[in-house]
Specification:
single chain, 171 residues, Rna Polymerase Sigma Factor, Chain: A, Arc Repressor Mutant, subunit A, 82% helix, 0% strand, globular
Length: 171
């Protein structure tokens, strides 16, 4: 029975970890904080078990736990953010991300759209998002100013957003 529960928890984490992490980033966490709070989100499930009902209900429960972890972190660091802002963020997340299938569809569309990004724009994206290099280093490596790098990244993000919306419709 314990092995079955471990497999269920592992499957739950695999299925929802990325969505919880993206939600925490959406709330304003940096990467490291999102990593930490994502782990904290799953601790109650590991400690007390969890009865999974459905994808949407499970995702909503985990977002609620993640939000509470985020609020506790904000209180600890005394970083002020209004609860009303978090309520708006929750509603926007639910409308934009909805369920796991919608999130996966967005990721598939992003992967397809990324195939059209070439040259220095592609290199800039890879260095920034995959290798997590600082902007100054990326600019130096690509032989451009830091301001030009920022403009390039902004333009490619806008193009990717337009491409994704073209494939899926607006969020």
């Amino acid at each position: 029975m314990e092995a079955l529960m471990a497999l269920d928890v592992e499957a739950l984490i695999v299925a929802h970890q990325a969505g919880v992490w993206r939600y925490l980033r959406y709330l304003g966490c940096d990467r490291a904080q999102a990593d930490d709070l994502t782990q904290e989100t799953f601790l109650p499930v590991l400690r007390h078990g969890f009865e999974q009902r459905g994808e949407r209900e499970t995702a909503a429960y985990l977002r609620k736990v993640a939000r509470n972890c985020f609020l506790m972190s904000v209180r600890r660091t005394r970083h002020v953010q209004s609860v009303e802002d978090l309520d708006l963020a929750d509603r926007a997340w639910e409308e934009g991300q909805g369920d796991a299938e919608a999130g996966e569809a967005r990721l598939r569309a992003l992967r397809q759209c990324l195939q059209g990004v070439q040259g220095r724009a592609r290199q800039a994206l890879e260095l920034h998002y995959q290798q997590h290099k600082p902007g100054e280093e990326i600019a130096r490596q690509l032989g451009m100013s830091h301001d030009n790098l920022r403009v390039t990244l902004h333009r490619v993000r806008q193009a990717l957003k337009k491409c994704i919306e073209g494939k899926l419709g607006p969020p």
